[in-house]
Design goal:
It contains five helices and two strands, in the order H-H-H-E-E-H-H. The protein is mainly alpha-helical. The radius of gyration is 14 Å and the shape is globular.
Length: 105
């Protein structure tokens, strides 16, 4: 379902791609490479700048909680350490997908 999301007209295509990267780390952390590869293949068609911005944001976010004047609770941009450690693997898969598709990653 997340890959079927039409993000072209989305207000925040970066947020959609970031969520897809997060989902790929979830699958890899669980040892499920096939769905992570499917996500990576889809991400391989994306502009490198947008993907690198998403990665930078995910690597910078260190707090699992988000606080405002009213507590919103979970920080959706936060990756737990075991999933953050999978970012390199996700981007390696994206690179493989880009190479196979003839897309410059």
């Amino acid at each position: 379902m997340l890959l079927a999301t039409d993000y072209e007209g989305a207000e925040n295509p970066l947020g959609v791609r970031r969520a897809q990267i997060q989902l790929a780390t979830f699958f890899l952390a669980r040892g499920e490479e096939a769905p992570a590869r499917r996500i990576a293949a889809d991400l391989a068609t994306e502009k490198r700048d947008l993907l690198m911005t998403a990665r930078d944001e995910l690597e910078r976010e260190v707090s699992p909680q988000y606080w405002e004047i009213t507590d919103r609770g979970s920080n959706f941009s936060y990756l737990p350490p075991e999933r953050r450690a999978k970012l390199g693997e996700v981007f390696a898969l994206i690179g493989q997908g880009a190479g196979a598709a003839g897309v410059e990653a």
